[in-house]
Amino acid sequence: MKTITSTTVDQGGYASNETISTVHPDILHSHILIRLDGPSLAALACSSSHLHALSSEENLWQNICSSTWPSVNHPRLQKIISAFPSGHRSFFSDAFPFLDLQPLKLNVNSLTLPTELISAVDISYRNKIVYSKVEEMETSSSWFLCSPFRVDLLDPKDSAPTPIKYFGGSNKVDTWLKHLEENLTLSWIVIDPSRKKAAVNMSSRRAVSVKRHWLTGDVQVRFGMVMGGGGRRGSSRELVECGVVVTCVGKEGGEMHVREVSMVMEDMEGKGLNGKDSLVILEGVMENGRRKKGNGNEGKERYEEFGERKRERKERRQRKERALDLVCISIGVAGFVTFWSAMLFR
Q: 200: which residues sit within 8 A by CB, 6+ positions away?
């Protein structure tokens, strides 16, 4: 085995391509590449053509995807991902980055709506998976297209146990809820199996809000992704929210169970979108939506901004309604006075 005793470093502080190329590929693979996460491996691939070739190996990206999202180990998903242009590397580049909040130009006539969607969902607590599910959904029926869009992963009678201790006491409940917000994460990847490159993560990763029902004690952990809805500026569809709610139950000191995991789509007035409108937005995001790096708080920041814009919109609508009511009342009073004045002077 060749021993490297020195490393040539250029003025920028990086090892030269000549030095890297002298290291046997097996050593790079077994001691460096397999230890990197997805973003680090992608960054390394940009440093040189030699490292790009080594970092593009399918087994590296397959291992990264499997460890990041255990749900993708589902046999059907593995078959679908293998058809992507660069396999698991393409899937990671689609599913890992955050969606950029940009207006979407949606042309319903030019979009081919999918007849099926597959959801790959993973819930983690302190970076350890507590629940995974692959949900296949038929989307071509008239019932789906006309009904409110909603995806439920658990049957109402079922629940999934977690290692999280349920705390329902009133003394430190706020601290416990804050703990859940910081340590419970969710990934919800939507895949169109009819296309060769169509996957997008619809979750904020970290919770945007955690609330406990004052009567039942149920805990609702909400994850949300805000995106362009294809509507004109100022309309209710300018922005839409894809909201995921994880409802948890339990008894004091016992294990917390996940009872509900559901996804809905809502506009800026809080109205649920139907299946067809939701499919149009999802296809537009998959095809034209921009991806970008984001921090762990970006989802919550967007959600809070979206909530503020919803409140402002509601207040403007209420002011308009009050003004309209005042005009109607004024016209009614004027008409009433005019009528009785005419009657008195006959």
A: 94, 95, 99, 189, 190, 282, 285, 286, 289
Per-residue confidence at 9, pLDDT binned at 50, 70, 90? very low
Q: Measured between alpha carbons, how far apart are the two ends of the chain, in Å? A: 118
Q: How far apart are CA 47 and CA 55, in angstroms?
A: 11
Quickly tell me which residue has 């409140």 as its tokens.
Answer: 311
For the chain, give the number of residues: 346
Amino acid residing at 315: E
Instruction: Give one word for 217, left, alpha or beta, with left for phi > 0 and alpha for psi -120 to 50.
Output: left
Strands (DSSP E) contained in 64-165 are 98-99, 116-125, 128-138, 150-152, 160-165
Within 10 Å of residue 80's Cβ, how many Cβ atoms?
21
Q: How far is CA 97 from CA 100, 129, 289, in A?
A: 9, 20, 11
Q: Which residues contact 194 (CB under 8 A, 6 or more apart)?
A: 114, 115, 116
pTM greater than 0.85 (yes/no): no
Half-sphere exposure of 212 (CA within 13 A, CB side): 19
Phi, psi of 40 (to 5 degrees): -65, -40
With CA atoms as reference, report the closest residue to 83 among 241, 232, 234, 194: 194
Short-list 127, 123, 129, CA closest to 244: 123
Q: Give, for 121, the enclosing helix (H) or strand (E).
A: strand 116-125
Q: What are the tens digits of pLDDT across the range 331-343?
A: 888 887 887 877 7
Distance CA 226, CA 264 (A): 12
* Model confidence band, residue 294 (pLDDT cutoffs 50, 70, 90): low
Two structure tokens written together for 253: 């000191």
Judge whether 220 and 247 are in contact, CB under 8 Å: yes
Contact 230, 106 (CB under 8 A): yes
CA 115, CA 201: separation in Å to the nearest integer? 19
| Residue whose structure tokens are 């040539």 | 8
Nearest-angstrom CA–CA distance, 344 and 346:
6
Question: How far is it, in rounded angstroms, from Cα 91 to Cα 105?
Answer: 24
